[in-house]
Input
Amino acid sequence: MNFIVSDRDNSVVRADYEVRFVLNDNLENSGDKEILTMMGFEKGSVCDLPNARRIYVSLKDTNPESLRIAVSKIVKALKGHNVKTVKMPRLSAPATAEGGTYGAIKEIEAALSAIAEGFVLSGYSFDKYKSNPTPCTIEEVYVSVSGCDRVTAEAALKRGRIIGEATNYVRDIVNEIPEVYNSIKMADDAEKLAEEYVNVTCRDYSKDYLKAQDMNAFLAVNQAGPYDPKLIHLTYTPRGESKGKICFVGKGLTYDSGGLSLKTGNGMYNMKSDKSGAAAAMGIIKAAAELELPYEIHSVLGVTENMIGSRAYKPDDVLRTRGGVTVEVNNTDAEGRLVLCDCLSWAQDEVQPDYIIDMATLTGACVVGLGNYTAGVIGNNYDLQVDFKLKAQTSGENYTLLEFNDHLRPLLDSKIADVRNSVPGGTGGAITAGLFLDKFIKEEYKDKWLHLDIAGPAFSGEPWGYNPAGGTGAGVRGCIYWLLNK
Output
């Protein structure tokens, strides 16, 4: 999708369709007040007028997230119309006499980025297995601006397009079926990603390396799987001076049956989404390379399946992890944290970053506590948690802080090992999972580490906002906005 900046009057810009926003339900200057009133146009509405080749959408306010949501309504309404070009209302900054359809935008760059993101994100569909797909046909979007130079406007639109496309890249990975997408495929995709950019490198490590590194928790999860595990390390190096080194660690369970602690039939459905954390870490590398961010960024992915069979690891097993901590297994469906604990240990020693953030569809408890649309931010450093939330939420992703509680720590105690991997029937499951991971964070990294539990927003059975049903690419935009705002 291309975004074209125009400084001409909107009336002379030719396009298949014109978009008009209605701010604060004010129809006076709409030009179609009578018909909109007759059709019951109200707050939250979208009204398509095919004969006039115009579409109206209610705009709550001029905040970036409101613009993304409004654009998503436009794209959904125009699907099936075979519309290739769209022109947007005029943006003005600062306020002028003409004002534009929805007045002055103080943060015009944020608004332009949000508009581009909205189009790219809501135009996405995963339809490779459908016989008769209905893709979005919009190819070009004309954006008219005043009070903002063309170079600035084009850069803002480009930023939004890049972030949206990186998110869609992740959605494709998350949505791909387990028959196709395994550890070998993810390693291949990581290699291809590195080949696209001169300043991105990739190394993937196989089972023998994991054995040499004593990554026995990771290996245990893989025991019954048909494909060897992969530890994948992607690195983006900025062209100029680096402002710091950040490492993202992603859980990459390409399928999770629950192991011998077998999930129910309904619980197993859509477990292809358990690779969302690793996919998001790949998407961050893609976005960073295209945005040319001034940070050295590493993504470490732990990739395997959690399957059943005669070789499967079992409840009652004790695993000695890479960091030397012994883990009593009491639930083989608490496998993501076993993969992550070894990967976090490796990343601290081998990457030695300034900050380390892991992302995982880790617990159903986080979904129960926060709902389907919000990720949990967990860690030891409250200031870092707040900083991440405030900067990441400008992306439109929802984050809530979950704080550690020392009264929960003893629940992970084991009678025969250093720690057990879950708390049977216990409360605070999202926090105790974070406390388990904290056991593997070295003292010097305690205040530099965050755990993002994206179990709720990473995959959805129904569309919401600008997210389609299926993979949403959760984590990519939040982390990129955090980096952009640092």
User: Anything to note?
Assistant: Residues 150-175 form the longest helix (26 residues). Residues 95-106 have pLDDT under 50 and may be disordered. The chain has 14 helices and 20 strands. The first strand starts at residue 2 and ends at 6.
